[in-house]
């Protein structure tokens, strides 16, 4: 898990991505920015943590059909499962956030403009650690 990128220890209903908003120009950033406003037209520097919209609309999508190279965790003995990568537009924040679709959702299940929601996901796990992340789930699909 990347600390500070999403809520922790919350159920699916309360799960949210976390960004930052500049108090001077109201620009929102994800991944979060804690040092300075990245808006080149702004001289402000105070940033406040904000939860991002839970829902958005599919802006674009594709599938990942290759086994990622090291240092990504990938069991070479396991059967490779392609994943769906989804770019989601958060209208209120006026930004696009990239993430994987929930397991089992394929590109054939998606359409540009379709509404999706962010849910907690698992990137990898072993006997000691679970690496959490976020996934995009089309509305009406159980995880």
UniProtKB/TrEMBL annotation:
Residues 12-46 form the ChsH2 rubredoxin-like zinc ribbon domain. It comes from the Bacteria. SUPFAM superfamilies: Nucleic acid-binding proteins. InterPro entries: ChsH2_C, ChsH2_Znr, NA-bd_OB-fold, Thioester_dehydratase-like. Residues 49-119 form the ChsH2 C-terminal OB-fold domain. Pfam families: OB_ChsH2_C, zf-ChsH2. Coiled coil: none annotated. This is Benzoylsuccinyl-CoA thiolase. It comes from Streptomyces lunaelactis.
């Amino acid at each position: 898990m990347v600390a500070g990128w999403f809520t922790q220890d919350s159920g699916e209903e309360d799960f949210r991505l976390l960004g930052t908003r500049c108090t001077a120009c109201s620009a929102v950033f994800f991944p979060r920015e804690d040092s300075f406003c990245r808006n080149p037209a702004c001289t402000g520097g105070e940033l406040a943590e904000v939860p991002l919209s839970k829902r958005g609309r599919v802006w674009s999508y594709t599938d990942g059909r290759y086994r990622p190279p090291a240092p990504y965790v990938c069991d070479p003995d396991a059967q490779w499962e392609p994943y769906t990568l989804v770019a989601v537009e958060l209208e209120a924040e006026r930004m696009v956030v990239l993430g994987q679709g929930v397991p089992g959702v394929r590109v054939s299940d998606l359409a540009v403009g379709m509404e999706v929601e962010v849910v907690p996901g698992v990137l990898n796990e072993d006997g000691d650690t679970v690496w959490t992340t976020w996934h995009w789930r089309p509305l009406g699909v159980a995880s």
